[in-house]
Amino acid sequence: MSASNFAATRWTLVVQARGSDTAAQAALSELCAAYYEPVVAFLRAAGRTEDVARELTHDFFARVLGGHSLAGADAARGRFRSYLLGAVKHFAADQKDRAFAEKRGGGQEAVPLDHASSNTTGAGVQIAAPTVAEQEHNFDRHWALTVIARALNIVEAELREAGKGAHFDTLKPWLSGSADSASESTQADAAQSLGISDGAVKVAIHRLRQRFREAVRVEIAQTVPADADVDDELRHLLAVLIAS
Predict the structure, then answer these.
(1) Range of the domain at 159
(2) Which residues contact residue 155 at a Cβ distance below 8 angstroms, ignoring those fewer than 6 apart?
């Protein structure tokens, strides 16, 4: 992605406008919709059930889209992933404080956001609460998976629009890692299925992988403030997936 069109990426637009105009709000809304699942994952790791985590995530994004939480976004170095993680950690801490306040003053039992810290099994065995580092890793892992899924969707849409949906369906295992790319017989089966030569299927796999890598980079570029940050962000996300 060149410097000339990088200025139009979603996160750069949001930070520059601080969410104050229609274009910035639309860009922020799209980013929030795209990266909804990492927030759910963070709250689930903090001890909430699936339903409660999703309800809290809805409340969290309503607050973000309300336009009052971008003051700390740094146009020079801010990344949407880092901003969103910091914002959800602050939100989780606030929810925990409210839960304890209600428990003290409302006369009703309230379960704190990280209630897993006091969970026990039926036998009375203590269940260790996840550490903050574990919660952050869970967030980043789901972030990386979201980037990959969105890039796959882009490539699939392009091929289907070009009338090559069968190519994507047949060759997708070489992107997802479920196919043995070193297996000549597997590639030969793919070539036979598509009605092309063994050499042509090798070329098709290479081009598909190349386009997928480009799509991943474009997706990452939408969430960082400078072209130079794309490689660092990509390395971080790959490291997170390897460590999972």
Answers:
(1) 3-243
(2) 168, 175, 208, 211, 212, 215
Look at 206 and 127; give whichever has higher pLDDT. 206
Q: Are 46 and 92 in contact (CB under 8 A)?
A: yes
CB atoms within 10 A of CB 82: 15
Q: What residues form DSSP beta bridges with 126? A: 120
Total structural domains within the chain: 1
Contacts 24+ apart (CB under 8 A), 83-87: 84/35, 84/38, 84/39, 85/42, 85/136, 85/139, 85/140, 87/60
Predicted pLDDT at 106: 54
The torsion of the CA quartet 39, 69, 96, 59, rounded to 10 degrees, works out to: -60
Cα 93 to Cα 87: distance, rounded to the nearest angstrom: 10
First-to-last CA distance in the chain?
Answer: 29
Return the biggest CA–CA distance within the chain: 74
Task: Dump pLDDT digits (tens) for 219-231.
Answer: 999 999 888 899 9
pLDDT digit string, tens, across residues 193-214: 999 999 999 999 999 999 999 9
Query: Could you give the 3-state DSSP secondary structure of residue 41?
Result: helix
